[in-house]
Amino acid sequence: MGMARDSCLARVTAGVAIGGAVGGAVGAVYGTYEAIRYKVPGLLKIRYIGQTTLGSAAVFGLFLGAGSLIHCGKSY
């Protein structure tokens, strides 16, 4: 039972990490696009892109981690 729990924790952790990386990349691209599109002034661009990147990474990491947790209990 202990081995299965460690394996599940490792899978969820990997899911959160991969989700955060993919979400961060998508958020950075989207944030840059929106900052240019809406003509965000000066240094506020960096803040806006950062907020979009972190928000997207957190949401995508959360969902991919939750999906990994749900998938952990299933055996095929």
From TrEMBL:
A single Gene Ontology CC term:
TIM23 mitochondrial import inner membrane translocase complex
Q: Which UniProt keywords apply?
A: Membrane, Transmembrane, Transmembrane helix
Q: Where in the cell is it found?
A: Membrane
Query: Which Gene Ontology biological process is one annotated for this entry?
Result: protein import into mitochondrial matrix
InterPro entries reported for this sequence: Romo1/Mgr2
| Residue spans crossing the bilayer | 12-33, 53-72
A Pfam family reported for this protein in Swiss-Prot or TrEMBL:
Romo1
The family classification in the record reads:
Belongs to the MGR2 family.
- What this protein is called in its record is Reactive oxygen species modulator 1
Organism from which the protein derives? Musa balbisiana (Banana)
